[in-house]
Amino acid sequence: MSSPIVTGILSFGMSGRVFHAPFVDAHKGFKLKGVLERNHKNAAEYYPGIVSYNTMEELLGDKEIELIIVNTPNHLHYEQAKQALQAGKHVLVEKPATATTAQLLELFDLAKQQQRHFLVYQNRRWDSDFLSVKEVIESGRLGKLTEVHFRYDRYKPVLSPKAFKETAGVEASGLVYDLGPHLLDQVISLFGKPLDSHKVTASQREGSEVADYFSYQLTYPHQLIVYVTSGILVPQPLPSFVVHGSVGSYIKSRCDVQEAQLLTETIKPTDAGYGIEPEGCEGQLTVIDEYNQKVVELIKAEPSNYINLFEAVYQTIVNGALYLITDEHIAWQVELLEA
Predict the structure, then answer these.
(1) Alpha-carbon distance 85 to 95, whole Å?
(2) Tell me, what's the pLDDT at 2?
(3) Phi and psi torsions of 263, nearest 5°
(4) Which of 162, 196, 277, 288 gives 281 a disulfide partner, CB atoms 3.0 to 4.6 angstroms apart?
(5) Which of 228, 226, 124, 235 shows the shortest CA–CA distance to 176?
(6) Would you say the C-alpha torsion 162, 164, 169, 173 has a positive or negative sign?
(7) Is 201 exposed, middle or buried (0-12, 13-18, 19+ CB in 10 A)?
(8) Is 328 exposed, middle or buried (0-12, 13-18, 19+ CB in 10 A)?
(9) Contacts of residue 109, Cβ cutoff 8 Å, sequence gap at least 6
(10) Strand pairing report for 67-70 and 90-94
(11) Tell me: the pLDDT tens digits for 220-262?
(12) Helix 180-191 vs helix 327-337: angle between axes, to the nearest 10 degrees?
């Protein structure tokens, strides 16, 4: 293996502590050197010896650091990714990559000029529930696909104390830019760019200034219709994945446990029980057999691990492999987000 990629993280809040540092630390292809901590210095409690930088300029000025993880609030992604690329660093940016297509194309061009990689962190491609859906679709057992529903519902009636998420006029605020990138990336990874799209948004919580509900209707070739929906005022969520085809249906709830396990801060990505869905979360596959009878089968998802995303980042930077979340995929996604 080549020398590990020396990595710095721009924030050690929940995102850095839960979704990034544990995987950079666990993957032998990376060396977690430092993190930006402007106020509270907590990272050393988790990673003794880690460097805590006071400013972004200090972090970017560290010549040893090769990769910057931009995991700050959405409205900062474009400017901070740009600064990191200009400093000659590779970039892994949290979703959404940018608020607009114009910003995104500028960063793509800058990365090429700097001969650096600009990569987007879409961890939900490695959710166990989504991978189960992907496997069933690709198996062909559903026949010709006709109708697909992807949902991500929550119940949070109280506005977030994080003003950047709830303030009208702040770039990339609201639910469209929060959960939309997860759902749209999953759809795009399966079906590509839609032929046509129709988007509906609403502000349903009391006092909300931003969209806290959205629904897309996406049209694909061969009369396939895909619905992408998310609400934050849903007391009882519907199944997260519903896929209908000419000879079968697959229904799967959101059961991936990785986020919940990581939030405990006691389970690591390398632990034996990591990423395994609990009993009772099986997806329901219904197919029509040769006798025109329904046959129902429960399908247990295989364990999954977000470390596979970091393996993809490593292979791209070190070996020049094509990153699974391609520039095209992100461009199509941002186009839909800002529609």
Answers:
(1) 17
(2) 79
(3) -65, -25
(4) 277
(5) 228
(6) negative
(7) middle
(8) exposed
(9) none
(10) parallel
(11) 999 999 999 999 999 999 999 999 999 999 999 999 999 999 9
(12) 130
Residues with pLDDT less than 50, the chain: none
- Contact predicate 337/181, CB 8 Å: yes
Predicted confidence at residue 1, as pLDDT, reads 60
Give the position of tokens 């061009």. 109
The first and second tokens of residue 310, run together, are 């970091």
Place of tokens 């959404």: 96
Enumerate domains of the chain plus CATH numbers: 5-122+308-322 (3.40.50.720), 124-304 (3.30.360.10)
Q: Where are the alpha helices (DSSP H) in 54-93?
A: 56-60, 77-86
| Token pair recorded at residue 339 | 């529609």
CB 216 within 8 A of CB 333: no
Spatial distance between the Cα atoms of 13 and 319, rounded to a whole number of angstroms: 31
**Cα dihedral across residues 307, 309, 312, 316: positive or negative:** negative
Backbone angles phi, psi at 35, to 5 degrees: -145, 145
